[in-house]
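Thread: "does anyone have the structure for this chain?"

Original post by V.I.:
We have the sequence but no experimental structure in hand. Need at least a predicted one for the grant figures.
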Amino acid sequence: MKFLDQCKIYIKSGTGGAGSMSFRREKCVEFGGPDGGNGGRGGHILIEAIDGLNTLIDYRYAQHFKAKTGGHGMGQNRTGASGADVVLKVPIGTQIFDEEYNVMLADLTQSGQSVMMLEGGNGGRGNATFKSSINRAPRQTTPGGASEEMWVWFRLKLMADAGLVGLPNAGKSTFLSAVSRAKPKIADYPFTTLKPQLGVVYVDRREFVIADIPGLIAGAHEGHGLGDRFLGHVERCATMLHVIDATGEDVVDAYKTIRTELEAYGEGLESKKEVIALNKIDALDDELIQMLTEELKAVTDSPIIPMSGVTGEGTDLILRELLSNIDDIREQEKIIVEKQIAKVLEKETGMTPEEESWSPL
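Reply from O.Q.:
Generated one for you, tokens below.
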């Protein structure tokens, strides 16, 4: 399946149906009075996040979506049918922006979460609704409510627990294929990975999701290379695995290059917990591995684990370290949410959660 992480689409809700002007006409019923029904509402435009999708490719060729118009009212006080809604299915983690890409309108981060982007027009009133004690035969109706339309941008940020970052050809895809069932393309040249890859890994009877993005180069935050466009996929990750090629010319320079790009990109990437994987140690002796590890320790406090994606050496230690970071971050997020709920509860009831839960019984 082809990968697409942003697209622009046009959406338009349905117009409301017009109200009907009708009068009751039956044999032996004189002055039957008005019986025109109301129009039905126009269809809404809704966007829903669902499981099983990890790309926006469905919106590459189908870019215009219009909801149905509401049915017109009819005689005998019959109300028109509501126009059919249009529900657009998107992957979990999709953000919705306005046409200028300046304002975020919605962020769908949970399965089943939906948002009504455009509301269908209300149905028009039939003449029966205008009947009064002084106007027994009104000849007045209203048309259906107007539709709404707009262009919006979809931007997908994959929902993963850990993200892989590093220079091109550092061995990120090799690591992902070694610890999961993902089958990314692997080759001995830069930018083999052209799109993000997800893999589910298992360690100590636990599982979590790792995202591999194209390699970063100096100036990536300014648009150089491929990785700048995909850094957004790392924003939602709880932790990062920084893969460094131990056979490269300068491991410290490689580390600093990626850190510079993360700091320049912003969005909190520079403050995320990371684990450093010194990859391709199968090609080095123990003395050189120790020397490279010491060089990295001089510039970072993050844990450094020698690893070989080919032989699998060190991969279990890395997965356990990543899982520990994920658990710590998720626990912190849980505490923050609980505090927010407590503040709302105290504001609405004037009681703390402890006071509300107390009972003399």
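V.I.: this helps a lot. The first strand starts at residue 6 and ends at 12.
O.Q.: and Residues 315-349 form the longest helix (35 residues).
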